[in-house]
Amino acid sequence: MKYSIEIGKIVEGALKHDQAKVINYTKQLVSKLEKDDDLRSAIKFQRLLSTQTEFSLTPMNSSSPVAIPVDTESRMDLADIIYPYQNEIEVVLSKQNEEKLDSFILSYQNADKLNSLGINVSNSLLLYGPPGCGKTKCAYLIAKRLNLPLVVARLDSLISSYLGTTAKNIRSLFDFAQKMPCVLFLDEFDAIAKARDDNNELGELKRVVNSLLQNIDTMSKDSLILAATNHQQLLDPAIWRRFEYKLEIELPDREAIAALVTLFANGLYSFSKKEIVEISTLLDGQSGADIEEIVTKAIRNSVIHNCPFSIANIYDELFITKNIVPQNCNDPRELLQIKAKYLREKDSKVFSLQVIADILGSSKTTIQKIVKEVQS
């Protein structure tokens, strides 16, 4: 049945006398009807909405404040909301990760077809992997692609020092996320989902995990929940089973590195194919965050020193950021030797003697002599 998610949520809200849920999912239904050019039905539902004089929540794209649940002790919001119009995220992933992420998004976008066949929508995704590889950005991307608000849990207010309060906060957050079409995102997930057999943890955290599991179990299949962690080995085994999709976001491959460098350069420099191969080889093994830091610092240095930005700035910044060049080294020949050795060891086929000479602004003969000295 078409619009099965919205209709199901509206009925569910009506049965539970939850006016906020009815209103928000009716708005979502109106939006979809308008998109499908069913204006007669859209107007009909819009008229029903207009009879309401008070709204518990605002429209998805509104900049007006929303009644976000708060911690009862600190009175701090339990989450931040990023609306679609605020979400300008750009993400570069490896081809494999991009395909898996697309599969998750397509599953939700085709919820009506799946429900008509009696197949539940895959509504939960666990993102894990090294820091700085784009897990948080993936959550933003999913919300953006689905045109939904992203509800980002705030761990500083979610986790309370008072007995039982953290579990209550988790419950409040889950209840809130089901009152409106949105994507609930739990970042740094291991902070509340650690293995319950960890003898170093207090009993309170174990109760928190139990509460988390119960809330995930009772969460409607029409609602979306994402979680991300850098420490997947710390998660409770039962947590793993609650997530239908699990996606490891690994370090970017060379194709992704090339796209990231081009993205972060922001049109300030036009890289040749040869330069892209070289820089992708050089940055292989770095996270997306590392690459962004290196390119951004390179741009900043070119601006403050009033010189044109070029690929040489990226090389210089990499040598500094990765401590390849000792800070107390002032001998030009020694510096040349260190840099040439590093490039040569990265990939001798990509970084030939001539390429190294071009990068370092030296002659091929000089680089050849230096490389021989290092090898001898």
Query: What separation lies between the terminal Cα atoms?
Result: 74 Å
- Give the structural class: alpha/beta
Estimate nothing, just give the exact number of structural domains. 3
Shape: elongated
> Within the CATH hierarchy, at the fold level, what is the topology of the largest domain?
Rossmann fold
Q: What is the percent of helical residues?
A: 40-55%
CATH architecture descriptor of the largest domain: 3-Layer(aba) Sandwich
Describe what is shown at a glance.
The protein is an alpha/beta fold and 376 residues long.
Topology:
Elements lengths: L3 H12 L3 H17 L3 H12 L28 E4 L12 H15 L1 H6 L7 E5 L6 H11 L4 E4 L1 H4 L6 H13 L5 E4 L16 H16 L5 E6 L7 H6 L2 E4 L5 H12 L7 H10 L5 H17 L6 H11 L10 H15 L6 H8 L3 H12 L1
Parallel strand pairs: 2-5, 2-6, 3-4, 4-5
Antiparallel strand pairs: 1-3
Tell me what the structure shows.
- The protein is α/β, with parallel strands linked by helices and 376 residues long.
- The protein folds into 3 domains: 1-56, no CATH class; 61-248, P-loop containing nucleotide triphosphate hydrolases (Rossmann fold); 254-375, no CATH class.
- Helix content is 52%, strand content 7%.
- It contains 17 helices and 6 strands.
- It has helices spanning 4-15, 19-35, 39-50, 95-109, 111-116, 135-145, 155-158, 165-177, 203-218, 237-242, 254-265, 273-282, 288-304, 311-321, 332-346, 353-360, 364-375; strands at residues 79-82, 124-128, 150-153, 183-186, 224-229, 245-248.
- A 6-stranded mixed sheet has the order 1-3-4-5-2-6, sandwiched between helices.
- Helix 9 links the parallel strand 4 (183-186) and strand 5.
- Helix 1 packs antiparallel against helix 2 (19-35), helix 11 packs parallel to helix 13 and helix 13 (288-304) crosses helix 14 (311-321).
- The longest helix is centred in the first third of the chain and has 17 residues, at 19-35.
- The protein is elongated and about 80 Å long.
